[in-house]
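Per reviewer request, we include the raw input and output of the structure prediction for the construct analysed in the revised manuscript.
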Amino acid sequence: MIKTLRVVEETKDNGKIEIYSQRVRAGKRTYFFDVKATRSNDYYLTITESKRRYKDDGYYYEKHKIFLYKEDFNKFIDALNGTIGHVKTELLPDVDFTQFDKKEEMGVGGEKKESDLGGDLKWD
């Protein structure tokens, strides 16, 4: 499921401001795409992978974070799209990837909801 959240508030981590956020649930993992700004309005993206792990007394979240700066956006998108394109056309040409675009998930209370998992990443 992709969920969009727009936040404009100052955080406690060095005065950085979170501008925009999207959450993607993917099985046991959740990915967060957050746009943040410094006090001088310099924007960057953080990509966080969060995995729920179990311990003796409950669970905790293991997180991995990537910082992506505006000067690298186009290079990152080109490399990601090129790599995904290679997997789709060269390694798995017989897989119909459109089957993953819309997927029904069970929501809170057992209700069904759709998630949009497809599409190329693009920054203008």
